[in-house]
Known about the structure:
Layout: E1 2-8, H1 12-23, E2 28-31, E3 43-46, E4 49-52, E5 62-63, E6 66-67, H2 69-76, E7 85-87, E8 90-96, E9 102-106, H3 109-119, H4 124-147, H5 153-159, H6 161-166, H7 171-177, H8 182-188, H9 192-195, H10 204-217, E10 220-222, H11 226-239, E11 243-245, E12 250-256, E13 259-265, E14 270-278, H12 282-289, H13 297-305, E15 311-319, H14 323-326, E16 332-336, H15 341-347, E17 356-360, E18 374-382, H16 386-390, H17 396-415, E19 423-429, H18 431-438, H19 456-462, E20 472-474, H20 485-503
Parallel strand pairs: 1-2, 1-14, 2-11, 8-16, 14-20
Antiparallel strand pairs: 3-4, 5-6, 7-10, 8-9, 12-13, 13-14, 15-18, 15-19, 16-17, 17-18
Helix pairs in contact: 1-11, 1-20, 3-4, 4-10, 7-10, 12-13
Amino acid sequence: MNYDAIVIGAGNGGLVSALKLQKEGKKVLLLESHNTVGGVATSFIRGRFEFEASLHELCGFGNENNVGEVYELFKDLDILDKIKMNEIDETFHVITLDTKEEYTMPVGVSNFINKMEEYVPGSKESMEKFFDLCKENQEALNYLNESKGNVDAKVLKSKYHDFMIYASYPLEDVLESIKMPKKAREILSTYWTYLGSPATELSFVHYASMIYSYVNLHPVISSKKSHELSLALYEKFLSLGGDAKLLTTVNKIIVDDNKVKGVVTSDDKTYYAKVVIANISPNLVYGKLIDIEDVPIKARQLTNARILGARGICVYLGLNKSPEELGLKNYSYFIYHTLDSKKEFERMKKLKNDNMVGVVINNAVPDASPKGTTMLYLTGLLFSDIFTKVVTKDNYFDLKDAISENFIETFEKATGVNIQDAIEEIEVATPLTFARYTNHPDGVIYGYLAKKSDNLLPRMMNQNNEDYVEGLYFAGGFASRLSGYSSTYKSGEMSALKALAKLDKKEVAKDEV
């Protein structure tokens, strides 16, 4: 059977790609190995609790009066009326175990600056400079996106002078250059785990874009969990005549003369298309799905050169008391030993580490669970393959128990809140869980590690140079926009635009972003 495009994987990026192409009148086949769509953007039920699998909060959304890029995308895809988003009234709350610090940062740029001045007197001027840079950074990124490769160097130099200066530097270097006090730099960098690299390695462009989105637009969470978003995209795709096959795994991507031709599925059926969008890892695509003689050497070299990002561990807790009864006042709890991101990054390469992000969903969505209960998620990251090295069939459940006990005890120590006595349901996801569900190598949930010359801007600027097989494009956390819900939605759109350009036989500029 022939299609214009085939999308492999119905995660965030794949759903957006499929819907965008179908909405533009193309004939699209969406293939998903599971019995439902969404990838990790889904939920699961234990007892009387329906747990959110992965979404903490979404940045880049905003509302009709303060529109973000994800809001614009969902409006273009015509699904805004199918979802409901709840705004979160804090940016983050961070607690340190060793240095005994605690900070809560509000939403709104002026509020954020004033609160930082309260915590770190003398920081106001540098914080104002930082947010000025953030604003210009966002405007420059918007210009680069809208230019579609036709970038006017004179415009960049005249309108985005500071962006041109700071774009290639890591976050820490830029904060030091604007003379931001060390403590303010440390507090400001709290979100580094969400992007997966310490402030000394993390792109200023990437972090500035994210933090500005959080502070200026407010973070949001879906009122019915992330599967509400997945289903809205999927149902719209079907309503426009899209073809989808669940419980269908792709066993092979057919490539001939360096051009994609189609796929072979687990039920031995062959589907043909000029375009294939892979919402799965390049490791899987180039390592297993394409015959080795058809894999371009540059594709193999780049995939092998990139470092896998964070592996995930998550403890899902259903508590039989309300947040008020427990004394959990905040939505998020970032728990580190110190605010030194480089030191904490090294700590998180070890299996026995208790750095985590705790999220109390009910403090953003009060009816997320039955009245008088709380859903608390404790998520930790591993920046190494240590879990896979030590786990065996015999010790797996003991490891899960030890990890969950450590997380719970650490959360109680950090917050002073007793949650042990209120636990009604508990589930633990490890790197093996995520590897089994996503088919990502080693259970990676963050795609590739972003660092120095392989950060956000270089990847965006080079994305067309990484299209090694004609007609094969990537969406999702391994693509050029990197990981995170907002990024993967946008990556799906970008892959669809590339596909449209090919299908409509339009020229795509090599430096298009």
